[in-house]
């Protein structure tokens, strides 16, 4: 049973990611201060959150055990950073992907932070050493990179700075589990973290295959959505290897030569421009015209699918727990 938790969580930035994080933490029973520099942005964000939560409740997809009204009562807006961070146990920064802007925010937070608050960034590509080096509270700093949109996709990559205290990593991990997310720990920073490195490997080969005319862009996407993606929604590539033979060692014995042969045939890293870009853009735009109305409709459809998939995965996990 979710109850209102002690300690306040602060979200810095009221855009799409900030709003999603606010909803996730509220579903876990935490009081939220949603901070932004302009009151109008904060007001709009709170209205958007309210609308989304009520819609989710209506279709039975609201996370947590508190109802929408109870969750909404936990979220309030703020335009004064000092007031926002007072008494906070955890701060999640969600400003645009701009190094100077983020460094400025963390510089301000460094002056205001207590010695036990966790300072986390949602950055998808900026390394902790670029963001946190030189801060006096660097031991309390960590990257907590969500997948867009975090409310529907639970994975969070936790990436420490070399000086991050192991306790910071552990506390963040426990907190993420508590609010229903699926945290993974990286032992050290690496460009692209893990999710984007895997994603870019797939995008890269997809681009080459479509660009070389081996397969149409639309069919390429089907290979993922109706092929690999079906499995990967429930297990990763390493467990897939383990199950696709008599264990992983047997898989390697059977297939290692073929895998290496195919990998050696991969082309160079694409530049993601030129004729291939035009070709893929035309194919994608034919399916979903690249105007706001069509893109938003398709995003809404995607998010709806993700909500239902998340619900199915929760039900399967619950059934598995009851069986064991």
Commentary on this structure:
The protein is an alpha/beta fold. It has 13 helices and 8 strands. It has helices spanning 16-27, 39-58, 68-72, 81-85, 99-112, 128-132, 166-178, 195-211, 217-232, 237-243, 248-264, 274-287, 292-323, and strands at residues 8-12, 31-35, 75-78, 88-93, 118-121, 141-146, 155-160, 182-185. Strands 3-2-1-4-5-6-7-8 form an 8-stranded mixed beta sheet, sandwiched between helices. 29% of the residues are buried. The model has no long low-confidence stretch (mean pLDDT 96).
Shape by Cα distribution: globular
Tally of separate helices: 13
Mean pLDDT: 96
Query: What's the gyration radius in Å?
Result: 22 Å
| Proportion in helices | 40-55%
Can you list the strand order of the major beta sheet? 3-2-1-4-5-6-7-8
Task: Name a few traits of the molecule.
alpha/beta, globular, 8-stranded mixed sheet, 13 helices, 12% strand, 8 strands, 324 residues
Offer a quick outline of the entry.
This protein is of the alpha/beta class and 324 residues long.
Q: Topology, please?
A:
Elements lengths: L7 E5 L3 H12 L3 E5 L3 H20 L9 H5 L2 E4 L2 H5 L2 E6 L5 H14 L5 E4 L6 H5 L8 E6 L8 E6 L5 H13 L3 E4 L9 H17 L5 H16 L4 H7 L4 H17 L9 H14 L4 H32 L1
Parallel strand pairs: 1-2, 1-4, 2-3, 4-5, 5-6, 7-8
Antiparallel strand pairs: 6-7
